[in-house]
Amino acid sequence: MDKMWAGRFDKALDKQADDFNSSIHFDCRMYKQDITGSMFHAMMLKNQGIISPDEYAQILNGLSGILEDIENGRLEIDMEAEDIHMFVESVLTKRIGDAGKKLHTARSRNDQVALDIRKYLADECEEIGSLILNLIKAIKEKASENIDTIMPGYTHLQRAQPITFAHHILTYAFMLKRDYDRIGNAVERMLESCPIGSCALAGTTYNTDRYFEAERNGFTGVSLNSIDGVSDRDFCVELLADFSTIMMHLSRFSEEIILWSSWEFKFVELDDSYTTGSSIMPQKKNSDMAELVRGKTGRVYGDLFAMLTILKGIPLAYNKDMQEDKEAIFDAVDTVKKCLSIFAPMVATMSVLKENMYKAAGEGFINATDLADYLVKKGMPFRTAYKIVGEIVGYCIKEGFVLENLPIEKYKEFDSTFKEDLYNEISLETCVLKRISVGGTGPESVKAQIDYFTEFLNEKNIY
Ligand code: ARG
Question: 129: Cβ–Cβ under 8 A, 6 or more apart, which residues?
Fold first, then answer.
């Protein structure tokens, strides 16, 4: 394909250099944002009297045709083109002649690409937002079925205190809600500064209306410094950090699902449709989806670091290095979307093995804190109670007892405060039921957390 800038050169670009320079293989995915952006640009040029109404009509018609033809497969994007911007403009000029050559008045590819990528990301973030909401819904529903499912809560991966499975998994819903809000904030900020009209870097001598174009393209304002308009990619860094955080959350959840699916835990069983077998070991059922999500987290972190590194040394304003922003952020967008999409049905179809969870909660002196609290409620200072219970636990381990079956006479030898009612106080059910502090594991507190998400999802029209 002939270069639009060929006039200044005596020789054609070397083939290998041409391929190296080209971004069409990846920026072709922004064709829609590029074309609609151009439509609004042409409209602005017409409104400002920079092109005639007739030229505008031809451009608009030409661009609509190109968009339609790409969408229904009649026009194939030419991978020999330098980038999507050049491709669209050259097809337009071929189709409508001289009027097409006027489209690029009062703009540059520098502000054009800065506009396209923002619009593209705004659209993708909309989808990512819906996928997050879907996953929150799947978690909320699984939680609703497990308000009474007792399991061990862990710290240091040691059994710590009894909790419910609902309480545990709702933690991920809270993380994901923050992710949702963070993306919303980042997009809002990104859309505050529309770059189009910054032109190459210095602005333009034409009487343009940047506010009109900004508004049409879905922005709330314009970039107030044209150099910043074309050289800023902070929004990519910010979104990549947000995507990395989503992946970090999914990766933690994956790690738990992988552990819970192991024979060592056997707390959950993933549905056959989201697990794989081994080519050699017939007994295996592997949590490959969760493992892949955990693995792909590294890849998204890599995209964030690529972006930061690309930007760190480049002088103002546009430099070709910035073309590298796209592959990084596109990869992250695709990966986050795939991971969120697979996670929701994987969680929804996962069976919870309640008895195994309950059994695990009954082992390991998980109710020791409650035994200490029993003494405290009878007037003993917490530290003293803590010490006595520590001694009791030590005795039980040595003699093969658990707190539930250690005889009352033995308890009384440790402290005369102990009465028969202690057994009720340290039952797993009591330990859980009584934790009704805000945010706690007790059913009332957990129901409030579920209600919080029902309301949040309803606000987003998800029922
Ligand atoms: N393909 C380029 C990119 O993605 C478009 C901008 C090119 N601008 C330029 N001055 N060469 O960054």
Answer: 180, 183, 184
